[in-house]
Amino acid sequence: MVLNSLDKMIHLQKNTANIRNICVLAHVDHGKTTLTDCLISSSGIISSRLAGKLRYMDSREDEQIRGITMKSSAISLHYATGNEEYLINLIDSPGHVDFSSEVSTAVRVCDGCIIVVDAVEGVCPQTQAVLRQAWLENIRPVLVINKIDRLIVELKFTPQEAYSHLKNILEQINALTGTLFTSKVLEERAERETESQVNLHSEQGEQVYDWSTGLEDTDDSQLYFSPEQGNVVFTSAIDGWGFGIEHFARIYSQKIGIKKEVLMKTLWGDYYINMKAKKIMKGDQAKGKKPLFVQLILENIWSLYDAVLKKDKDKIDKIVTSLGLKIGAREARHSDPKVQINAICSQWLPISHAVLAMVCQKLPSPLDITAERVERLMCTGSQTFDSLPPETQALKAAFMKCGSEETAPVIIFVSKMFAVDAKALPQNKPSLGTRIGVVHVLGLSMQRAFLALIIFLFLAGDEQQVESMTPKPVLQEEDNQESFIAFARVFSGVARRGKKIFVLGPKYSPLEFLRRVPLGFSAPPDDLPPVPHMAYCALENLYLLMGRELEYLEEVPPGNVLGIGGLQDFVLKSATLCSLPSCPPFIPLNFEATPIVRVAVEPKHPSEMPQLVKGMKLLNQADPCVQILIQETGEHVLVTAGEVHLQRCLDDLKERFAKIHISVSEPIIPFRETITKPPKVDMVNEEIGKQQKVAVIHQMKEDQNKIPEGVQVDSVGLITITTPNKLATLSVRAMPLPEEVTQILEENSDLIRSMEQLTSSLNEGENTQVIHQKTQEKIWEFKGKLEQHLTGRRWRNIVDQIWSFGPRKCGPNILVNKSEDFQNSIWTGPAAKASKEASRYRDLGNSIVSGFQLATLSGPMCEEPLMGVCFILEKWDLSKFEEQGASDLAKEGQEENETCSGGNENQELQDGCSEAFEKRTSQKGESPLTDCYGPISGQLIATMKEACRYALQVKPQRLMAAMYTCDIMATGDVLGRVYAVLSKREGRVLQEKMKEGTDMFIIKAVLPVAESFGFADEIRKRTSGLASPQLVFSHWEIIPSDPFWVPTTEEEYLHFGEKADSENQARKYMNAVRKRKGLYVEEKIVEHAEKQRTLSKNK
Ligand SMILES: Nc1nc2c(ncn2[C@@H]2O[C@H](COP(=O)(O)OP(=O)(O)OP(=O)(O)O)[C@@H](O)[C@H]2O)c(=O)[nH]1
Ligand SMILES: [Mg+2]
Fold first, then answer.
1. pLDDT per residue over 61-75, tens digit each?
2. What is the whole-number distance in angstroms between the Cα of residue 62 and the centre of ligand 1?
3. CA-nearest residue, atom 4 of ligand 1
4. Tens-digit pLDDT profile for residues 701-728
5. Rounded distance, CA 490 to CA 560, Å?
6. DSSP state of 350
């Protein structure tokens, strides 16, 4: 960038009222990057001829090759209109679902967004998703309807048809906004209502529920998109033109002498003009009148396209002169009509002006940040703003003021870390002394001579001399290094280079700080006692983000987007930086996609393992959504959002972060294990009659034979098992949970986690955490929902007796305690019996819960986590143990609980935890309670785990598969092929709709993740690129077939043959997982080969 314009940018950064931080959001391929190109070219950063072709923001090679954006990146633009100058920090975001986490990182640092919609495709799934993201983040949107040229050239619409089509799109997107708005208002109203109910304790009398209150008195006119509001622009980014109706209102008010305000109201809508009377009438299209939008705007554009496409030179000249434009001779003579259109339209209706003027007028500046947004950003989890400490609440004023004075606290949010080649940093740019530099400064002829000399010396084999002649690069050691830059926004105060600042991780709590650091502590912050999730460091380097380039800055005033260097060791993915420790961490980014596609990676050469581990760590830091895990088997696993994301991560790992050859496993498909009710029909769809029932029971008995001696099983599947030292006995039963309950548990996992923390602090006798009223309300609501779905004799009182959730204490499985001796429920904590006996039960109880946690973490079928299972502990008999006069067990149970609790995300840690525990307990071998089987608490864990597994094995077990929902848009003629691919891959079509006004169909289907690899490619190939699916993880679904099924009836034998392994999808999946994990796979080996049956149709 020219130094001059850098100075200009620095100057503009200080005028907060004229800064606009915006991002461009849309469905994949709707033209975000092309539009961004047009806006950039208006600043002179790229040439206007290249705008739309270069896709400047797609700086990665794979982005250019695939033609999709994979990351969000920012660029600062200077825009002047009238007397005002604006700084626009523009962020281009990806539209592909796999990269939706990049959208989340972008919206957090913005105040407004441009929603782009393809005029042909209209509102698509990702359009909905990004609009929702913008709402959740409380940023204001404006609308760009792009690719209008396609309506003319491809669909060959008349202006009237195009108008109806555009109206339709606008209605769709406003309907979407409407639902978002209504749900938000209703939610707020419900909140207010519960608050006032709590305060007033509700008055007597009849209560009428009026669902619309609150909706009527809220002003929503600003929210909707409408051309007359000035928040909609129609564009063709590829042809470089765009307009809002204001442009034409201005022109026509002069031309036909109607007030601009009147035209603004009538240019869009069913109005027509009576030229004779010079009046605008509200009209009906049925009368054959043309709406103003058609007559005054679209017809002009259509006739221009018509003239250029038909190469009608006279007409073109006429139009050009009537518009008062000057077209360069080269463009005028060009044979490609696109070039001509671009040259004429970009002068007539410059797109950058239309879009940027709308952005400056309609989108808020950083000073306009709303109190609502600030409060939302500051309150993590179930906290409310009033419950924050007063020092923290005081920061709200700083956010709102966005001040740059010395006393203003510096508050910065880092939404992601991105890697750049260290060589690309401004301070490391090659100086004139480098190899290229030398060639560059020498004149052309000298250059040739110089190169010739080098070649000559090479040929002569005198490498030594070449080495000494070519200047050494500045960076030798750091040649290959990636440097991490934080993508951030200053919310208050001035960020200065070298300023020291607190780095607050997502789990930091200002309360914790106030508890640990005495009030009035005046030592320098470097000497502070350690506080978890907090660090103190300097802002090393500050950068202006300019797309592919970075510019060095000394300071950044509030309200700006910036890059910060030197935070690599302090920030993993996102963080809050503040000059005061009373600042809370911002709420976590709201990710739409769940990482689901896993692969194991290993280096081609085992000795390169350290590079791989280092590379994976870097990758983890550089991508907001990827997860890296080390599995219990020692495998290094990469979890990504989808296939395209996976490919990008692997490329990055190979070429940037690890720089080694790696081998990648087949995708690891996650499954869940569950149990169901016994089936009513057999595999050939015949009702299971008495005879078959006997056979099935026979089979069940066979299964039960797997259960060792000493374990009792009764007819309802109650397992009674005794610890190895014969002192304690447990009776456990497993039941499948209704589907709705599993769903409720999944939705409330955060709440369950915080409940678990509360009860564990109660268990420890501490009562430090005050439950906030809102949290309490949420807990009761959650309980109410469970009670509502767990009705009937079998579930009586179950909800009250829930003891724990698992795995990881917050999963979708329940442990119920029905023991009469000892009551302990998640809702109330342990029953208040202060006796010694009760405390012993409590501590041993922790071991039982741990056993349950381990059992739910890996099930008996293929060691995958359980889902939707309720374990009922009917009895636990410790009488014998008590007789032995056991005394102090308390400590062990408690310690174990501490290490294992805390909602560990990581499976490995959890496993490690029990291992550590076992080690610890074995060290305490001399305890009086230890017998040759180890301490009783350890035995209880193992016994409980076994009991749960047996309880599962006596029920019909099923696998659950992860399912994607997929939206496919396809034209009618390729529909059949799309269905063929879907059904081959076990997909199920849920819905098929025709898109109004087009020949496109929208198909909504579900597809197992296990069958999805290569799906997108296959669809694209089979339909010659006319349909492309978007896959998003949606839910888990039970695979109906029984993995252990063997034929029992004659019909089944006939139908499936003796081995019956061909049809059983569930068994295939189960065995594949078992093989991958190195577990024993029971496979029938062909003992007596028999002639294959020939199906009749093949005869
Ligand atoms: N006909 C037409 N094509 C356009 C227009 N704008 C963009 N395109 C084309 O649409 C395709 C996608 O454009 P991009 O700008 O890469 O789309 P995007 O929204 O950035 O896509 P992602 O970043 O992958 O989500 C390209 O082939 C563009 O040439 C337009 O106004 N008219
Ligand atoms: Mg793009």
1. 888 888 889 999 999
2. 16
3. 238
4. 555 556 666 777 777 778 888 887 777 8
5. 6
6. B
